[in-house]
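Annex B, item 7. Sequence and structure tokens for protein A, then protein B.
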Amino acid sequence: ASFAALPIPSEDLLFAVLAFPVRLKDWLLAHDILGHPDDGILDQVLSGRCGKGFEAYIKARASQPCKCNICVEGKSPQLPYAAPANCTSKPLELVYMDTCGPFPVTSPHRNLYFQFFLDDFTNANAMVFLKDHSQVP
């Protein structure tokens, strides 16, 4: 892969390498400094294409694959969310209501608003049309 195909401009990558001391303690620190790039990008940096002084870490990088906890967690699939528990035990115990309007154009029956009702327990719903906002309960 060439640097022209990288998701970040190569001059930014070069600046990230040169802005820090060249004698890094280990290649995992280089991985952190460069924003957790994949192994291919890190190999290009450590091989000297973007900076110098990484020769001592090329062997360490080759002997152990990247096991960055942040990258492992970021690439792992997320478990599904638990289904929400029902908070009601009988119909009409909890009713959601929303009022919408005024609309710029009246309905054929001259309504400018509507209200929507939803029962939490049964999922029964109803829509009521209103001519004026003063009709909202």
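Protein B:
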Amino acid sequence: MEETVRILEELFDKGFATRDLPILGDKLSATVRSLSGKDQLEIEFKMGKDKTKNSPAAYIIHSYSLELLCKTVVSYGDKVFKDSEGTREFLENLTNSIIDKLVKAQNALEKDIRTALELDKIEENFSETGHLPEKSEQHPE
């Protein structure tokens, strides 16, 4: 419950939420943040522009993961990133296992945000079809 409150407070105070992630126990950690709508659109535009539809699935997934992390990794160890290009230059040299760990942490943060905002319940309520009359009241027969 404390994590949910922390996430909600960050969302309302800053417009985004963050999470610290231990990489090597307590010796090395990273911080990831939630993805903004603008950043999501930029990633989708870049992925579409790169003509990835004819690329192997693994390439597309890895490219998307890297784009996602470029927008959401705030820090890694004592390195604090100022922009997505600096983040990219750093991340491109990390091992795939660490990239995967960062992606999973960022995805878990997004899932926890959805849970904190109870978006799944909202979607359930809006996706249910209400009762429809058998005959239209505008055109009675």
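Comment on protein B: The first strand starts at residue 18 and ends at 22.
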